[in-house]
């Protein structure tokens, strides 16, 4: 399996749970990831429902301290006006020298997320349509390279909008989508540059990837036009029991929910390096070419995160490179 990339998620929510100085060290955490041999760092978004650091600010800090890492959002929700988002992403793409990947989602359906959207003055029920129009407006503004763009949609309208600065890359940063519903799988194959779900099993991931690839072929796009990625939480330890305890503590602190509940919606694995690598190997066999790993820790602290980065790099990363 050639071309496999492995990235890690920056610890955004720790800034809320642990009120220490960690946010000032985001740049050095990204530098640590680069030093340890990872290919990318990622940051998610949830201003109110599961409050955490702003992902675009976190990735800007990461961009200033690294040279080769890809920088990705996992994921942005349709909370910003499209022109505002297009400008922010274009600026970050320039700051990073063209290393940005923009992961897009619509928000997990829950009362907390609905309230989050409402506090932004947005109707949660229209999120899919607004996400689609946001993507279309961003792509149009980036492709215009500073020339005026007009757009008339159901949710958004722009007239003679000329966006500057332009992104580093002519068509803008790659856009990846996180959804696994039938319509979104087809859209991923037709329009997006990557697919990055939180599939609970390699088998479910493989089923979705087959649909994405079928849609890509249907759209006449070449092989490799869509990157297969997957967002997973992994804990590496001396035994599965110790890793499972870390996962239980982490998800209770992070979400306030038991591990069993979280495993119904996300891929979450713990064990020895060999056990975790074997589990991830099946995702790779089913099409994944970019593994995005969240690294749970027993305590949501900066020191615990640094230890997890070093341990994962030393014990798990060599096994993944050998897939």
Overview features:
single chain; 323 residues; alpha/beta; 8-stranded parallel beta barrel; 11 strands; 17% strand; globular
Structure description:
The chain is α/β, with parallel strands linked by helices and 323 residues long. It contains twelve helices and eleven strands. It has helices spanning 14-17, 26-35, 55-65, 82-95, 111-119, 127-144, 182-191, 202-218, 240-255, 259-262, 273-285, 302-321; strands at 5-9, 40-43, 70-76, 100-104, 149-152, 157-161, 175-177, 194-195, 227-236, 267-271, 290-294. The protein has an eight-stranded parallel barrel, surrounded by eight helices. β2 (40-43), α3 (55-65) and β3 form a beta-alpha-beta unit. α11 (273-285) packs across α12 (302-321). The mean pLDDT is 96.
Tell me the layout of helices and strands.
Elements: E1 5-9, H1 14-17, H2 26-35, E2 40-43, H3 55-65, E3 70-76, H4 82-95, E4 100-104, H5 111-119, H6 127-144, E5 149-152, E6 157-161, E7 175-177, H7 182-191, E8 194-195, H8 202-218, E9 227-236, H9 240-255, H10 259-262, E10 267-271, H11 273-285, E11 290-294, H12 302-321
Helix pairs in contact: 2-3, 3-4, 4-6, 7-8, 8-11, 11-12
Shape: globular
- Oligomeric state: single chain
**What is the CA-CA span between the terminal residues?**
6 Å
The strand line-up of the biggest sheet is 1-2-3-4-7-8-9-11
Q: Which runs of at least 5 residues are low in confidence (pLDDT < 50)?
A: none
N to C succession of SSEs = EHHEHEHEHHEEEHEHEHHEHEH
- Using DSSP, what is the number of strands? 11
Structural class category: alpha/beta
What portion of residues belong to β-strands? 15-25%
The main β sheet shows up as:
8 strands, parallel, barrel
Proportion of helical residues: 40-55%
Radius of gyration: 19 Å
Number of helices: 12
Instruction: Look at the structure and give the mean pLDDT.
Output: 96
């Amino acid at each position: 399996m050639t071309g496999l990339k492995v990235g890690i998620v920056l610890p955004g929510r720790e800034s809320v749970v642990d009120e220490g100085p960690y946010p000032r060290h985001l740049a050095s955490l990204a530098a640590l990831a680069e030093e340890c041999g990872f290919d990318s760092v990622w940051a998610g978004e949830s201003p109110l429902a599961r409050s955490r650091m702003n992902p675009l600010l976190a990735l800007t800090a990461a961009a200033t301290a690294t040279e080769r890492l890809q920088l990705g959002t996992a994921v942005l929700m349709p909370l910003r006006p499209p022109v505002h988002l297009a400008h922010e992403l274009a600026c970050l793409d320039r700051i990073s020298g063209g290393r940005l990947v923009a992961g897009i989602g619509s928000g997990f359906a829950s009362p907390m997320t609905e309230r989050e959207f409402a506090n932004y003055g947005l109707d949660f029920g229209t999120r899919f349509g607004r996400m689609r129009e946001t993507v279309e407006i961003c792509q149009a503004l980036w492709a215009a390279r500073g020339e005026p763009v007009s757009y008339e949609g159901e949710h958004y309208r722009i007239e003679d909008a000329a966006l500057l600065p332009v992104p580093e890359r002519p068509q803008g940063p790659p856009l990846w989508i996180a959804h696994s519903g039938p319509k979104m799988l087809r859209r991923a194959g037709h329009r997006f540059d990557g697919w990055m779900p939180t599939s609970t099993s390699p088998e479910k991931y493989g089923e979705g990837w087959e649909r994405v690839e079928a849609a890509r072929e249907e759209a006449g796009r070449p092989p490799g036009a869509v990157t297969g990625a997957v967002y997973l939480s992994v804990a590496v330890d001396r035994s599965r029991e110790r890793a499972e305890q870390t996962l239980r503590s982490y998800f209770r602190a992070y979400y306030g929910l038991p591990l069993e509940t979280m495993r119904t919606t996300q891929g979450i694995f713990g064990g020895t390096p060999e056990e975790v690598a074997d589990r991830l190997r099946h995702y790779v066999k089913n099409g994944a070419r970019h593994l995005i790993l969240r690294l749970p820790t027993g305590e949501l602290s900066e020191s615990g995160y640094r230890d997890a980065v070093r341990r994962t790099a030393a014990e798990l990363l060599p096994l993944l490179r050998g897939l």
